[in-house]
Design brief:
Strand content: 5-15%
Radius of gyration: 21 Å
Number of helices: 5
Order of helices and strands: HHHEEHEEH
Shape: globular
């Protein structure tokens, strides 16, 4: 292939970072002048403990023993609680709900329509080594600017609606403790 044609083809199909370099953007600078790391805001152990405490209190209020899992922004398990009467088979389900909510930055109940046979995301639950959960009861937590996920909570043992309700109550308490409001209808602050 002629070098000029190859160059144009490469420029037309380049990833955004390559397009920036071609346009003289940020990535056109030498590596020695680019940031090589960045900080990611994430949920702390104290935040996870607060979520567990409020989720457990609400689960007791509705009379359902729950498995409650909290992950950080990197999808690592920060805290877990198995309440008396919680289903043993729901332990992993609560963890995968939290993993999915944080990793995909949305509530797990949002997949209900999309994952049905013929839907645009049919089969997505088989990805990520089977850890992608499509059952309601996983909700992400956002930073104070509502832009980045700092973690998530996943709850399982009740119905998907009960699991989600427990998540909402725990998250509302978390945002209140942080000094911000959470809109349960939109899932944002």
């Amino acid at each position: 292939m002629h070098a000029r044609v190859a160059s144009r083809l490469w420029a037309a199909t380049a990833r955004p970072s390559h397009a920036n370099a071609l346009a003289g953007g940020l990535n056109s600078r030498p590596f020695s002048q680019r940031p090589l790391q960045e900080s990611v805001e994430t949920l702390t152990e104290s935040g996870a403990d607060l979520l567990i405490k409020h989720a457990e209190a609400h689960a007791e209020k509705i009379g359902v023993g729950m498995n409650i899992a909290v992950v950080d922004a990197h999808l690592h398990l920060l805290a877990f609680k198995r309440m008396k009467g919680a289903k043993i088979t729901s332990i992993d389900i609560s963890m995968t709900k939290a993993y999915t909510a944080a990793g995909h930055r949305q509530e797990t109940r949002a997949y209900k329509e999309a994952v049905c046979p013929g839907g645009p995301a049919f089969g997505i639950h088989t990805t990520n080594q089977g850890k992608f959960n499509i059952i309601g009861g996983g909700v992400p937590l956002f930073d104070e600017d509502n832009k980045a996920v700092i973690g998530a909570i996943g709850v399982s043992s009740g119905t998907p609606a009960q699991d989600h309700d427990v998540c909402e109550n725990a998250i509302a308490a978390f945002y209140e403790a942080r000094g911000s409001q959470w809109d349960q209808k939109t899932g944002s602050q």
